[in-house]
Amino acid sequence: LGPILWDFDALTMSFWRLGRRVQWEGVGGTSPSTPQLQLAIATTEAEHPLLEHLLQQHGDLFDETRGLPPARVYDHRIHLLPGSAPVVV
Hints:
Number of helices: 2
Oligomer: single chain
Radius of gyration: 20 Å
């Protein structure tokens, strides 16, 4: 993408793509209080059909969580030596 400008106070990210400046705003950013994902879907249907397709295909990634994740066959663990002290105190 080249240079990317991040503003963590305003929750924005901007970059240049195909000669056009693209700016993404996070929830709680400086724009009016409209749901950001719905706004992005509404404005990208005609301009960016691939983005619209990806948002629809992976829409469940943006859903609010509902409890703990399901049990897995393997669980992540950090193996410690017996009797070792915490690394960060």
